[in-house]
Hints:
Blueprint lengths: L2 H15 L3 H13 L1 H23 L3 H4 L2 H23 L19 H13 L2 H16 L5 H28 L6 H32 L2
Amino acid sequence: MNQALWEGISMGLVLSAMIGPVFFALIQNSLEHGFRYAAVLALGILLSDLIYVLITYFGVSLFARNPYFEIILGYVGGAVLVGFGISTIFKKNRNRPNTGGIPLPKTKKRTGFMKGFGINGINPFVMLFWISIAGLVNLKQEYQRMDIWLYYTGILLTVFCIDLLKAFIAKQLSGFVTPKLMSKLNILVGFILIYFGSKLVKFAWDKQELMG
């Protein structure tokens, strides 16, 4: 296997092991809406990561390093995560025992795509991660252009495949999940999203304080 691809896969495994708001969103949506919905959500995550890769690789990362950019992204991202968290806590359970023969409308998959894209895309720590990866790649003088893209491909595909695996495993456990447990899970995920959103706001606030 190409060395650059292997190193990319290794970095992707490290990134996949990190537990953040995306992890909990994947599990919750797989349990509630099914594997296909969670897979579309994972595609949204993949696209936001790909955009960050392109931004950092082609040098616009100089703009992303602007502290004001991080502050704005921190406040906006924190507010969005807190909003997702509050809506998740107060979400009504859709698992009705009797619908009177009337089929319930299916959740549109494009909402899952936008949710995955949004939760991952507005997190400044994701942006900072890709900036650090771009810096790491620049230090590897032995890398040719093909090696660089194999490295990034290894990271992105590994993260995407493991996201699918997380969603698949969660769906297999759905038979053990009762409506009451799902309701508690929604509350837990909601508070977790609020927690991460609050951390982003604090990150932006501290950054702003340091700048005076």
